Backbone:
């Protein structure tokens, strides 16, 4: 007998990026997330990617949050024929056009550069697989919902978003699915937030479920206490100032950048920030920071209240030495500042964006400091630097790594092992757990810990189809 519901694992299975799962309810097909795999050559990733289904056959897309590894394939999905609804939270809908337009813009610029090289070699150009118009089509299909509101978008499915506490608009996706006499309550954690994360609320507890897809990015370890991480951050900044160099922070434009600005504002008001200039060298991060400014009252009240206590209703007022660099010329001018500055730029894994240009000009200077404040996926430049590379290739040149490299894991916006266990243990009903969005060693460690608590969990391979 054919199962009434199936779940196929298309991405982020034994891997961190590329979140994507296909839920089949009778003849209806629902996509949970539609994320990109993040690596060094994004043009190559875009062009070799083939959807393992016909996009026009999908009835509904549900997005947990606006990080590119969870929503980045939406323009390609629409360009390939998808015309159905896209559901997300209100916060995610505000962020989607910023993230997706930037992603497609960078893709088109990189494609233009590659085609110039192909033309010089006498080879035909590569056609684009999507355009910025496809982002507009995504937004025409996208509909935002508040947390806690139930919606029945297709027959046999009821949906509700709960706050995941990860970034603005991030959601735990709760689905009540029914086919004939069969019914299941499926919960997709999305990315669960770290309770120590500033600006965000704690992840919402889930009381009961039959099936749980739970992320395990940090399933093999706990984060350092935030106070210890902040102290180390302050000491690294002071060491860089004394060394006469600059500090470079590759930061994810969404979520992590705003947290780093908040912590720098704290240090500034405590009189502990020796640097006199902070550059936010990312137009996308600037746009997102503006959206965060407009939503501060909806975020964690304790943290935002501290900003208001300093007569600061936005990040720029809270950190008066902050400078926004919008144009390429302004970004290039930063290279003339050789000391006493903090430069925050994307991308967070150094696989593109303005940070790569700054690294080309500054990695070889021993007085500089490079601080990683987020997860670095395998295959990215950031991961190679964290793993101790002594030289890297940037824009066709071999660059020596002489700058001091630091990794501050306590800033993570993901729940650590203890928080993941506590969230899972709070779910009644003896649900069937699937661990996703993590590297194998992290997922296996989390699986073992769950087993100690009497919770059985599976680690599906990419392509696995689970009958629910």
Residues:
């Amino acid at each position: 007998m054919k199962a009434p519901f199936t779940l196929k694992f298309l991405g982020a299975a034994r891997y961190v990026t590329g979140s994507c799962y296909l839920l089949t309810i009778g003849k209806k097909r629902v996509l949970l997330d539609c994320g990109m795999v993040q690596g060094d050559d994004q043009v190559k990733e875009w062009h070799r990617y083939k959807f393992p289904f016909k996009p026009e056959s999908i009835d509904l897309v549900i997005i947990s949050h606006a990080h590119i590894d969870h929503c980045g394939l939406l323009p390609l999905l629409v360009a390939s024929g998808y015309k159905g609804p896209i559901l997300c939270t209100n916060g995610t809908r505000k962020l989607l056009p910023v993230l997706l337009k930037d992603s497609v813009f960078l893709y088109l610029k990189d494609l233009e550069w590659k085609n110039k090289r192909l033309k010089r070699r006498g080879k035909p150009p590569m056609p684009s697989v999507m355009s910025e118009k496809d982002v507009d089509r995504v937004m025409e299909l996208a509909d935002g919902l508040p947390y806690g509101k139930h919606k029945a978008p297709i027959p046999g499915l009821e949906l509700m978003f709960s706050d995941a506490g990860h970034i603005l608009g991030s959601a735990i996706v709760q689905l009540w699915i029914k086919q004939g006499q069969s019914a299941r309550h499926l919960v997709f954690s999305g990315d669960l937030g770290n309770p120590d994360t500033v600006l965000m609320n704690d992840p919402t507890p889930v009381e009961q479920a039959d099936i749980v897809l739970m992320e395990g990015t940090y399933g093999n370890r706990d984060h350092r206490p935030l106070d210890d991480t902040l102290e180390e951050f302050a000491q690294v900044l002071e060491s860089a100032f004394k060394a006469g160099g600059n500090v470079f922070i590759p930061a994810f434009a969404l979520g992590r950048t705003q947290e780093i600005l908040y912590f720098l504002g704290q240090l500034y008001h405590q009189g502990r920030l020796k640097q006199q200039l902070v550059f936010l060298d990312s137009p996308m991060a600037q746009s997102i920071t503006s959206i965060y400014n407009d939503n501060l009252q909806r975020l964690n009240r304790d943290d935002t209240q501290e900003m208001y206590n300093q007569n600061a209703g936005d990040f720029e007022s809270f950190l008066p030495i902050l400078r926004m660099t919008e144009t390429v010329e302004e970004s290039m001018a930063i290279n003339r500042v050789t000391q006493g500055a903090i430069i925050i730029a994307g991308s967070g894994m150094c696989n593109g964006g303005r940070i790569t240009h700054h690294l080309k000009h500054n990695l070889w200077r021993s007085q500089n400091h490079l601080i990683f404040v987020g997860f670095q996926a395998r295959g990215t430049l950031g991961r190679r630097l964290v793993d101790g590379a002594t030289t890297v290739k940037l824009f066709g040149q071999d660059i020596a790594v002489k700058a001091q490299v630091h990794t501050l894991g306590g800033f993570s916006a993901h729940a650590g092992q203890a928080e993941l266990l506590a969230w899972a243990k709070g779910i009644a009903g003896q649900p069937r757990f699937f661990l996703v969005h993590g590297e194998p060693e992290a997922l296996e460690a989390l699986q073992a810990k769950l087993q100690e608590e009497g919770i059985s969990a599976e680690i599906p391979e990419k392509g696995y189809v689970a009958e629910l």
Observations:
- The two ends are 13 Å apart (CA to CA).
- The first helix runs from residue 42 to 48.
